[in-house]
Design goal:
The chain is mainly α and 105 residues long. Helices cover 75% and strands 4% of the residues. The longest helix is centred in the middle third of the chain and has 26 residues.
Length: 105
């Protein structure tokens, strides 16, 4: 008997039960949060695999890329779009705990 697999199946069933009774907007939030957790795990793995020199070199490449005029134009466009969405009430605020992890509503 594989207890790890059984526990995982129990968790999956629990999540499905919860998702079935939530209103659609809350299901979307649940999916967003699950994707955030998934990305966080990937980020932690990547951080553990990269050396400080690799991280610094990557940061230098990003700095050079973002210093270009084309990047600044694109960033300004993205900022304008974000401000428009904010004014239109299309955003949700995010809260974080002391460790920088997102806190669900």
């Amino acid at each position: 008997m594989n207890t790890g697999a059984n526990a995982r199946q129990d968790h999956e069933r629990t999540l499905i039960k919860i998702a079935r009774v939530l209103p659609p907007n809350r299901v979307e939030q649940l999916i967003d949060f699950a994707r955030f957790l998934e990305a966080q795990i990937l980020s932690e793995k990547l951080f553990q695999e990269e050396s400080t020199a690799e991280i610094e070199a990557d940061n230098a490449r990003w700095d050079a890329l973002l210093a270009r005029d084309e990047a600044q134009v694109l960033l300004e466009k993205l900022a304008d779009e974000a401000r428009a969405e904010h004014r239109a009430g299309k955003i949700r605020l995010m809260a974080f705990d002391d460790e920088g992890r997102i806190v669900p509503e």
